[in-house]
Write a structure and sequence with these properties.
The protein is mainly α. The chain has seven helices and two strands; from the N terminus they run H-H-H-E-E-H-H-H-H. Strand 1 and strand 2 form a beta hairpin. The chain starts with a helix and ends with a helix.
């Protein structure tokens, strides 16, 4: 699974709002600068998140954005599906963007990708913004440790 820039930027902004807390407002400019996001692109993403009810905006000189619901009620799965659609690694195991493959009846690796889709979907749907925010950031060493174990390209 590879996230689009829209999803990446949406998640960055959401986690800044989780960090800010329920009462503090964060401006579009602050979100854009903190997360290295083009402001115009971020404005479009914020509008979509506002329509979903994930965030609310307050207008005025001291206005900005805050979460529209508790971070324990927003899941990674719903954010990713909204911006990227399917969580499936290949189209022939996607329930939302399914594409028929001529090899479906005999394909042996399709089962693995279905299992991966199901695991990813369960994991993402169980992962609330609150729970993910509480976890420690991944270190560079952790990333490369797994690559050494499983080989390059993961």
């Amino acid at each position: 699974m590879k996230l689009s820039s829209r999803t990446d930027y949406a998640l960055r902004a959401l986690f800044n709002l989780v960090e800010a807390g329920e009462e503090q407002l964060v401006s579009t400019r602050q979100l854009a600068e903190r997360n290295d996001i083009p402001k115009k692109f971020l404005e479009q993403i914020l509008m979509e998140m506002k329509q979903k009810g994930w965030i609310v905006s307050v207008t005025g000189k001291r206005g900005g954005y805050r979460l529209g619901k508790p971070p324990g009620q927003i899941t990674m799965g719903e954010v990713i599906r909204h911006f990227d659609g399917s969580l499936a690694p290949i189209a022939c195991v996607s329930s939302t963007s399914y594409k028929c493959c001529s090899q479906e009846a005999v394909c042996r690796f399709r089962r693995l990708f279905l299992d991966i889709r199901n695991y990813a979907a369960r994991s993402m749907d169980e992962a609330t913004l609150e729970a993910v925010f509480k976890a420690e950031p991944v270190t560079r060493e952790e990333v490369f440790k797994e690559a050494l174990i499983y080989g390059a390209g993961i």
